[in-house]
Design a protein that fits this description.
Blueprint (H helix, E strand, L loop, with lengths): L3 E7 L8 E7 L7 E10 L2 H8 L6 H4 L12 E9 L11 E5 L10 E5 L4 E3 L6 H4 L5 H12 L7 E5 L4 H12 L3 E6 L4 H6 L3 E4 L12 E6 L6 H4 L3 E8 L5 H13 L3 E3 L8 H16 L7 E5 L4 H9 L6 E4 L1
Parallel strand pairs: 8-9, 8-11, 9-10, 11-12, 12-13, 14-15
Antiparallel strand pairs: 1-2, 3-4, 3-6, 3-15, 4-5, 5-7
Helix pairs in contact: 4-5, 4-9
């Protein structure tokens, strides 16, 4: 009897209800590939945007009328179940984590990837749930803060959306790098964001743009602000960083390069070369091993309840990360 694996498919763009559970054949890994039994996978805000086909400018990459790659999920953690010929980095039984990239397919029971992809060994004491989200908030935040923003010890950083997957990771990473961190969040999340090491601004009581402090970096993890607003709190030569690309952000990037002053920056972290991303994961594991980074976990759902997980993420009320197991 042919072995099958469970996966989730998006046959058209839309609400969480377009997600369809499917059974697919389990195939032997080809040369240079490893097959992984997945223990946990992430459900992120970005996953929801890709399911909905938003923003529209992304459809040349995702597919115009429907997804080009119709399986869901990017970040995962699991155990190597089989290896193809020539594989040297991993062996059967290794616990690993990583991301599926633009082929997606991590919200599944199994996945097969090239061994030289974004895949590294998981520390024994790191739970699969935490490892499954390391390629979302932590890796993106490290790229923006260190590589794009040039963060250094003593810098002042303002993080918008400090209670989300990116924001909660960014607070911890910036603190680990020696920065002075201010986090913008709602009042209900203020206490635990403060416990992460940030000075908290409750956006329901005060607009961040009215702060008297001046920051070297403003990291807008949700794409809810603009360079125009951020200029009011940025120091001369400050940087506005945002991982949510839009036409207004593109315009701000262009204008800030022409006219000078604080500049806007964007980076598609997941499109960087696999070797560079593996290097970031190695650095994140060092921060984690030092006790300075712990992914904040909100909810865990069974894989069979992926639709409900997407519904919850779509509310915009999650704290940290959501996974399916």
């Amino acid at each position: 009897m042919e072995q099958t694996r469970t996966a989730w498919q998006v046959v058209r763009y839309g609400t969480p209800e377009v997600l369809t559970r499917v059974s697919l054949p389990i195939e032997a890994p080809k040369p240079g590939e490893v097959r992984i039994r997945i223990h946990a996978s992430g459900v992120s805000r970005a996953d929801g945007m890709m399911r909905a086909g938003e923003p529209l400018w992304a459809r040349p990459f995702l597919g115009f009328g429907k997804p080009r790659h119709d399986l869901t999920g990017t970040g995962f953690s699991g155990v190597v179940e089989a290896t193809g010929d020539g594989v040297t980095r991993f062996q059967t039984g290794d616990a690993v984590f990583g991301e599926a990239g633009l082929n997606f397919g991590a919200n599944a029971s199994h996945i097969t990837l090239a061994e030289d992809g974004v895949l590294v060994k998981k520390p024994e004491t790191m739970p699969h749930e935490e490892a499954a989200v390391m390629c979302d908030g932590p890796m993106t935040s490290l790229n923006f803060l260190r590589s794009i923003g040039g963060l250094k010890g003593g810098d002042k950083v303002l993080i918008l959306g400090a209670s989300g997957a990116l924001g909660s990771a960014a607070v911890q990473i910036a603190r680990a790098m020696g920065a002075e961190v201010t986090g913008v969040t709602s009042g209900r999340n203020a206490e635990w964001v403060a416990e992460l090491g940030a000075t908290v601004v409750d956006y329901e009581g005060q607009a961040y743009s009215r702060l008297e402090a001046r920051f070297d970096l403003v990291f807008d993890t949700l794409g809810v602000s603009s360079l125009g607003e951020a200029r009011r709190v940025l120091a001369p030569g400050g940087r506005y960083l945002c991982p949510v690309l839009s036409l207004s952000l593109l315009g701000a990037m262009l204008r800030s390069r022409i006219f000078g002053g604080p500049r806007a920056y964007f980076s598609a972290t997941g499109l960087l070369p696999a070797r560079a991303l593996r290097g970031m994961l190695a650095d994140l594991l060092e921060i984690w091993a030092a006790g300075k980074l712990t992914p904040v976990m909100d909810r865990s759902y069974p894989l069979a309840d992926l639709v409900e997980a997407h519904r919850y993420v779509a509310t915009g009320r999650k704290r940290g990360n959501v996974v399916v197991t």
